[in-house]
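Researcher: Quick one. two chains, 1138 residues in total.
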Amino acid sequence: MLRATVLSVATAVAPLAALAQPDPPPADGAPAAAPTDLVPPELTGFVQAEYPADAEAAGATGEVVLRITIDAEGKVTEAAIETPAAGAFGPRFDQAALDAVRLFTFRPARVQDQPTAVQILYRYAFTLESTVEVKPTPDAQGALHGELLERGSRAPLGGFRVKLPALQREVVTDEKGRFSFDGVPAGPVKVLVEAPAFLALEDEEEVKAGEALDVRYYLERVDDAEEVVVVGRRPAKEVARRTITVEEIRKIPGTNGDALKVVQNLPGVARVPFGGGGLLLRGADREDSGAFLNRHWVPQLFHFGGLRSTFGSALLESIDLYPGNFGAEYGLLAGGLVEARVRRPKDDGFHGFAEADIFDAGFLIEGPLTENATFAVAARRSYIDALLPLAVPDDENTFTVAPRYYDFQAVYDWQKRAHRLRAIAYGSSDALELLIKEPGDDPAFRGGFENDVSFYNLFLAWNYRPDPNFENEASLTFGRQDSRTALGQNFLLDFGGWQLTYRDDVDLKLSEALRLRGGLDGYAFVFDAEVNAPQPPKEGQPQQPLGAQETLYTKASVAAVVPALWSEAQAQLGDLLLVPGVRLDFFSPLQALAVDPRMTARYTLTPGTVVKAGVGRYSSPPDVDEYNETFGNPDLGMQHTLQYSAGVERQLTDAVLVDVVGFYRNMTDRVIPADDPDVKYTNDGEARAYGAEVLLRHDLTDAFFGWLSYTLMRSERKDGPGEDWRLADSDQTHILTVLGQYKFNERWELGVRWRYVSGNLETPVEGAVFDSDGDVYVPIYGRTNSRRKDAFHQLDVRLDKHWIFDAWVLTAYLDVQNAYNRENPEGTRYNYDYTESATLAGLPLIPSFGLRGEF
Amino acid sequence: MRRCTLLVKVCLPSVLLSACGEPFDPRNELTRYQVLGIVADRPEPAPEDEVRLSVRDFVPAGETSTYRWAVCLYSYGASVAYECVDPQLERPLPGMGPDVVLDLGPDGLNLRALYERFVAEAGAVRGLDGEMVTLEDGLDLWIKLQSGPKGDVRTVKKLVVRDGGTPNRNPTVVSVEVGRREAPADAPLDVRAGTIVPLRLTLSADSVESYTDESTGDTRAEELLFTWFSTGGTFDPGSTYGDDVDADLDLPDEPGDVTVFIAVRDGRGGLDIVERRLRVTAP
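Model:
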């Protein structure tokens, strides 16, 4: 006799919840990385599906996988069939399951104790269970205990059915993937595990009387149907915040999985020549934008100016790009910013990876320390210094210290009830030294060249959230920075010191319609500096030979405290969200107080369509050399920028979004070199940039993600009162990026990226003067940035191959940059007296091979 | 929060520029008109001194060069292509040849009086670091030359006029050895075609002077820079510095006359340029 039962299993609770993404971008972004501190939704109101009578009569069974959207209150707002039931009765099972889950209620999912909307996958199984009781003989019984893990990742598979067909018994694994059969007759027993999206597993075990047999099964995933969950979206308040997940970061061609380089593919971000690092956002200068890690300023973004980010991407949760009009919580920047968030290390066992490519090798280990604490340790080191002697004979090797870099990160994350403590130690070091045996056309480049740059930081944060309506996070980063660049007797830039950044952010939800945020932040530093160098070239100023320039010298200790206060309200007025804010920065080196009001607004026109606008004032200090007594003008004031942006975003489908934003920014009091070298710098300059950005984006779903990003832009500078506007160094009229990544199956992935960017601007050389003392020709330049090189375009391709073993996955990839070997003009090079010239081409086709073993 | 990015802006582009692409014809192979340097017999004259200025240049056979000299009393230097701050501060120097004399004294430029008048009118003369400049500190004058067959090759040299102190002096090349033989200054030395001959300089004992770095206050020894030129063959390396007073000349395969020039600079305006003739004979 058979008894009809409905076995319902929330498959997302264990394996999927870990991948759920409750903290993704607004509608203008892609899914964020899965936070590991997610508390999955808990089913509190279960509704039994009705077993279709005809199916029961026919002895038919079925299984349906549904995608359920649960809002922040735990209500099911949407349910859809993800994997329909098979067979003739499939549609009946589908409908019965749909009818049931729509009535479910949940305790909402939470991140850092804050309710959040998520989507989960839910498996509803319709089975006919035998009512024949199997009465084992007690003295001939054993037990079968085990755990079910995903092959490769070793992620526990909870909610899966493990069957002993011969005994007509089955159990469901718990959230840690564990299962247990007691009272199993001694002897061979067949075990069967079947689940959608996984290869069926069938095995035979030998159960001995009076003994418990422990087994571990690995299920191999056959497609990604359940791996990626598009989830509820964090309420957006900005005009443009664009998020990239770690999964995406790792797969974008031409970036070698480097998080900050991936950002360069988004709208509003200009291309950096030679594939270098740096952030050129919406026509602002490089110094106008910054990068933050857990809201704290990062002293050095890249190794060797652009080779790799100094913080490994594997520990990041996601990266947000704010190309402009960011909120009041950040200050002293005139452009935009990038904010990276470090994720909580995994707590479902020990995981990690080791990887190597042409530049470096690194590893990561993470896992639980205690019930409430997790940890991660990662490090990376280049090995150019080890390989160089093999490739270059000793007598030709001019390196006294071959180029090398390393970085490390150690994360401790403790969380219990309302409290969360985090400690992150991270650091980076670059070094190279070489002997320039033969001076070139600029003889000042001779002697020993030395470049040592390092920083070591400790980040501490205490987050307190006693209830969903209040949160306070106090954090600081304390560390040391050292940088030394020396070139014989002709150039020295040496500084080192201690730096503290701190902030305390409060988030108070007064009602559903009003939320207040605010806090204090700032930084303090004590530095010793010794500099013997010419004045550095500024925006629009072409490079002059070192040997022809007067050097200036200073040796000083500098200290400063730069505090700030900020406040912001988020008022939801029906479909309109208003976010007014204000920020006060006191820049003590100039004794300058800046009061910057900012405002953004978002109006939901129709479901999925939002119009948005922002305006704000952004004050920024001069560069440190510009207000230095020797190199600059200590009487300078702050620079002030007004930023405006407006746009519309439309969610075309669950996965496809289009976002169009227009922007205008105008900087006044811009610091520019003075005609009179006694004054050196004045606040008489002006800058403006305007344009439009388009993003058409397909979120990371089953097998594909990609986007089309286009920026139309003009960036101009005015070098003093009465001067005409001229194009800025960062002006790139057209910036187009098309990229996509397709997952053929669990083993093969292919990614492509194609970019088209207007050519670089340059200032033409119109002649030269021979400096007899410096033995060098000094170019005479024409009108600043009056010539544009041919356009840049390049195709990058990346192919990933995975080998999946029981307990680990091996990945090999080939990343080919500049696949059709385009000779992109990056600049112009000249002969010794500037009477001949040739195009300086960019990087040629570069294949890069890498290996990664992950467990 | 902002950091000076001198490394990226100054060093890296230069490394990239010098490392990429097909090389141009090297400067050391003299095939067209080129100024090798302007030698002042007193690189740091006193305000009442006379200074003899001589341009050493390579003029290809069959061509002639014109010379037009001037002195600029105040310029911001390389950043303004050595233009004078005020055209009235630029004075032509008498003479149309490769050698001229600049008289700084009362019968000539009368620099001291000019300086005092300027200070009286403007309050002070200031250097690029904004500090007041006195004659004791040293006043920069810019010697400007336009030369060449078309008269369009521009050269500048800075004279530091200093009242008192120990003036810098030019380094002096005592002898040039070519393949362990001293090359005479007034006659060619025979060398065999297609061979590589080492050249070695001997300098006077006082060529390397000690001086006080005005910025740091440190006492330093001059680091000499040697630039090796030839009208035939190739020097390797083309320039050396410090104690590296040797270079190899890869001689042409064909017989003929080759002239080598070696410029020695002390980095403070001191300069000596020597010339030797080689007769390349058949092997």
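The first strand of chain A starts at residue 2 and ends at 9.
Researcher: Thanks, that's what I needed.
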